[in-house]
Amino acid sequence: MSILSALTHLDEHGQARIVDVGEKLDTLREAVARGEVVMRPETAALIRSGEAAKGDVLAAARIAGIMGAKRTSELIPLCHPIAISGADVRFDWDQAGSRLLIEASARTVGKTGVEMEALTAVTVAALTVYDMCKAVDRAMRIEGVRLVRKTGGKSGTYEAD
Length: 161
What we know:
One of its GO terms (molecular function) is cyclic pyranopterin monophosphate synthase activity. Belongs to the MoaC family. It contains five helices and five strands. By secondary structure, it is an alpha+beta fold.
């Protein structure tokens, strides 16, 4: 199998195309993605206290992440617009490392998966944290955005190591 034939968003001439999913079966599909924002301990304390100048950072980031999942096809050129049946964004703290851990999930019943929606939700949530706190910590880093699980569809279940 050539690299071109393995990349479904490229035709036989290497040109970008949207994948035709019309013949696929509707199945329940779910994806979970994770990422993190690394910051100074003082920034983490500010977020946890709820006293950031721009307001409740985690509430804004949660809503932004869900909105990002819903608008993924507007951001990623060859991503199908899909009806999301559910999306969640959750946060946890690794206080020893001053890291905000972000996990997002997306669900649908359809012909194509929601991996991009989960990844977009994590990324948009992380970018929102950065935006809301950049005045006090421009050195924050968004790291480790990755797919950790997906279920449904022809390829079945994927679990990251």
